[in-house]
């Protein structure tokens, strides 16, 4: 038994037969439990290590890295860290972002120190010390990366980022109330658990701007599950991490970057469509920029994230970056049209072959595996620097990063989608230069879909509570009460796909299901050729077919790439304790995160939102074993991402016996219709 998560890319959403069979669920042994407990302790109230547990604090302070240099496998990395530390590093309390090279270097040096600790005990001691002495954000990010990469912390669970720094997920007025709950007249609830419950809305509640329609999407762009997903997505292959040094699988890195963003964009387009919003407008670096953004969130040090008014001209201090990004964009289009990229030496690399998409993705992201960072730079980070309106730092440690410069907040800014539309347009440009699939590559007459039906699809808004204690300051005299933020979030009722397939012989087959638009925002029917690129892959799995009729049923809740909302840390931790000091077994999955299952479907409409599904079945040629510490391991059919919709259409109408388009309606119910009592 094993498994799961196929290229998540593939499936931002994807399903499995029975979840228990798909996930490789394990029962923790003592060693795992002790490590898991220490990892959670290391993330407990990072801002106040001495107040929260003086024993841990002292233990950390006693750890002498220099005297124990033999306990690290890379002495040079330790020395580099110590040298930097003695010469001042980012002070505690200051804002951090990956997009400021001196700060990135500090975080990387700390990460290497963690990574090269010889055993878990040394890692633990080093982290205890760093928790007391390093900038909090540098510590958190280096620590998350270390737990994900170290061999001895495989599948150790990490809390979702909204519990660690809720200030990036909830509006500042909510954070203020949380900090001073009793002053705001809030009372603890009684009952199962005592807690302060803080109701929270999405942003935009303070400004009346009826004409600015982007706000209609706040419930989606500010969803804490979605933003946590993006945080982990960018953690799966951090742009600054060289594959070779840390054993990342590099063959899909750039391709995942492109396809993963393309899928996120397609998911976003469906949400726009439901809200009757048109496709995204184009923008020009030298003209005013339409989409404004007024974040109502703050950095931990109290500074507000920078704002960008609607239709604003880019400020003068962005001009040099604009010049730079325009140069680099034209180099990228030249590479795509010519078919070759210019390597760092005198070598040219052909990109119209199997590795091509990966090479292209690496140079577009400008990651540590890019063949020529000097020449192609990183339009990903330049775009964020221009559009986010961050201020030029007055000194290296006084920075004010924008929402786009922090992965947990990027998706809140409407500029994020404009930027990635541009990046994904490069991907399409590359794809459209390729030859279309021939009929023989796609049509398998020996496989026939006899029927395909889906249960009624219903979406609704549901209230969720998030514990944020860990992210607020505690007072010595305060007794610790739970503080929970209550917010409405998009959700849907579980449903099943029912598929009947006729096969002429027993075989291994791959099933893919895509969700896509039917009409555009003006209710005009889409042309197939124009529409296919907006399909979003919701499922992809391999199964054994018998000769004759095969009845298959898949439940949306078992979708393998998705996860449910995580348990709050206090519950997770108490289960851990019950197992460690009691006899209760503790089980965990071989994965850390996934796409929020709640967001599998876009919001429906009362009268039904028309969309369509595309079902495609083909024999498995060869299997690919995908491995990821974050998304889990999964076996999938070895085909390009987005297959079979990933190439231009050449007269083929996708009408073979092994494929099917199916119209569906998604209904949305109000709370009152659902009879939900809170
Ligand atoms: C601090 O941690 C130690 C060791 O885990 C534990 O024994 C002690 O009770 C904790 N102290 C407080 C105040 O929580
Ligand atoms: C949230 O928005 C609703 C509707 O505008 C309003 O009635 C409510 O007071 C708001 N709640 C908070 C906590 O701001
Ligand atoms: C060019 O890049 C390759 C691959 O990243 C690397 O191995 C090589 O050392 C680089 N060469 C130069 C001249 O920088």
Automatic annotation (TrEMBL):
Entries under Pfam families matching the protein: Hemocyanin_C, Hemocyanin_M, Hemocyanin_N
Residue span(s) of domain Hemocyanin middle: 160-427
Signal peptide: 1-20
GO cellular component assignments: extracellular space
Keyword annotations from UniProtKB, A to Z: Signal, Storage protein
Positions of the Hemocyanin N-terminal domain: 32-154
Domain Hemocyanin C-terminal intervals: 436-668
Single GO molecular function: nutrient reservoir activity
Keyword Signal: yes
Classification via Gene3D superfamilies: Di-copper center containing domain from catechol oxidase, Hemocyanin, C-terminal domain, Hemocyanin, N-terminal domain
Tree of life domain: Eukaryota
Protein name: Hexamerin
Species of provenance: Melipona bicolor
